[in-house]
């Protein structure tokens, strides 16, 4: 009986060591292996937790960004809640599931830009219209692009004296309930900034305005030892690179790259080409994660590039190339339906977020086994 006990103990220890070695190996290859998606609505919660347990964890995903925005029953500003929103108890279920699998959970609320979508103003500017950078631009009944107002998404005015009292209340509360050490502020595709008709921002340098907002959020988070993550497109010169006005900046915010704190993590997204701008961010002293969406072939190329970057640079630079993150730009419900084959768009072919997710983490597994 004693021999049998020691045999089982030895085998258990051997298995534990093997798992630890495997984990160390993949961590060395790609420190961050992430997944970003809209936070599930309450009715999707159980299916999403199943997805965490059965799909994210086995693929060794170690970072989950949930785009919460107003999908939470905020106590600090209940007037900003969505009509259907996650409760504290439901968020704690997500926290527990992620903790069981050593997945770092990071909430996102879109700050600065993305305060509207199509013909609808989202909660912050709907409830606090005086925060609007461009109040003279009215939301159309039917949205089209391009349009005479240059309206893509509304922004709040970063210099409005009341905006951060509200915004930081939301940020602090969501970070507390998610028990997180980081926060994603979005800050992508900011087209309205430093507008000529804004009484506070007119005539100011857009790069300084953008950097000022990044650093203000970063410093607020740092007071409680939390880190800031943002999307990287506003820090890329869209004209000089030819990357364009969506994945890069045409309104001169790109110079903010030299003005923001170096401990801000950049999520570098490119969906139409596997542009190698991760090198640019790392050279500027910033940690960077490459983010594909729905092109499986590009996800493979981007993963191979990230690993190549980590192998071919100095030790100082290597630590800035942090890894890969799959992004999903539908709600959690439609993605889960697509992933589990409940509702599939036959016209999409291979270019879907679920297929990209499978391909990305299949390539990570292949490369980790090969190295």
Automatic annotation (TrEMBL):
It holds the Pfam family Glyco_hydro_20. One of its GO terms (cellular component) is membrane. It comes from the Bacteria. Keywords: Hydrolase, Signal. One of its GO terms (biological process) is glycosaminoglycan metabolic process. It is an enzyme of class 3 (hydrolase). Residues 1-22 form the signal peptide. GO terms for molecular function: beta-N-acetylhexosaminidase activity. The keyword Signal applies. Its EC number is 3.2.1.52. The keyword Nucleotidyltransferase does not apply. It catalyses: Hydrolysis of terminal non-reducing N-acetyl-D-hexosamine residues in N-acetyl-beta-D-hexosaminides. The active site is at residue 189. Belongs to the glycosyl hydrolase 20 family. PANTHER family: BETA-HEXOSAMINIDASE (PTHR22600), BETA-N-ACETYLHEXOSAMINIDASE (PTHR22600:SF57). This is beta-N-acetylhexosaminidase. It comes from Spirosoma foliorum.
């Amino acid at each position: 009986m004693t021999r049998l006990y020691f045999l089982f103990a030895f085998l258990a220890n051997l298995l534990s060591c093997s798992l630890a070695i495997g984990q160390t190996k993949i961590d060395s290859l790609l420190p961050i292996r992430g997944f970003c998606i809209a936070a599930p609505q309450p009715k999707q919660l159980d299916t999403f937790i199943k997805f965490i347990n059965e799909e994210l964890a086995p693929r060794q995903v170690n970072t989950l960004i949930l785009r919460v925005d107003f999908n939470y029953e905020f106590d600090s500003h209940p007037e900003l809640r969505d009509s259907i929103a996650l409760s504290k108890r439901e968020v704690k279920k997500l926290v527990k599931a992620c903790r069981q699998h050593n997945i770092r959970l990071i909430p996102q609320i879109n700050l600065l830009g993305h305060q509207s979508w199509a013909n609808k103003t989202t909660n912050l500017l709907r409830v606090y219209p005086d925060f609007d950078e461009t109040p003279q631009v009215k939301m159309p009944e039917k949205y089209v692009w391009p349009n005479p107002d240059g309206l893509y998404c509304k922004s709040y005015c970063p210099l409005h004296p009341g905006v951060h009292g509200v915004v930081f209340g939301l940020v602090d509360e969501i970070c507390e309930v998610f028990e997180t050490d980081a926060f994603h502020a979005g800050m992508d595709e900011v087209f309205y900034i430093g507008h000529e008709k804004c009484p506070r921002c007119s005539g100011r340098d857009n790069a300084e305005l953008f950097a000022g907002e990044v650093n203000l959020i970063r410093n607020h988070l740092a007071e409680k030892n939390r880190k800031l993550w943002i999307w990287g497109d506003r820090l890329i010169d869209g004209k000089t690179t030819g990357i364009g006005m969506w994945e890069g900046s045409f309104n001169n915010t790109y110079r903010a790259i030299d003005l923001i704190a170096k401990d801000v993590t950049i999520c570098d997204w490119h969906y139409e080409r596997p542009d190698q701008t991760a090198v640019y961010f790392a050279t500027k002293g910033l940690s960077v994660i490459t983010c594909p969406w729905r092109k499986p072939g590009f996800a493979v190329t981007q993963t191979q590039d990230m690993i190549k970057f980590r192998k071919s640079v100095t030790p100082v630079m290597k630590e800035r190339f942090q890894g890969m993150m799959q992004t999903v730009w539908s709600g959690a419900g439609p993605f889960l339906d697509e992933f589990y084959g409940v509702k599939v768009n036959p016209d999409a072919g291979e270019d879907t977020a679920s297929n990209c997710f499978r391909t990305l983490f299949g390539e990570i597994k292949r490369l980790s086994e090969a190295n």
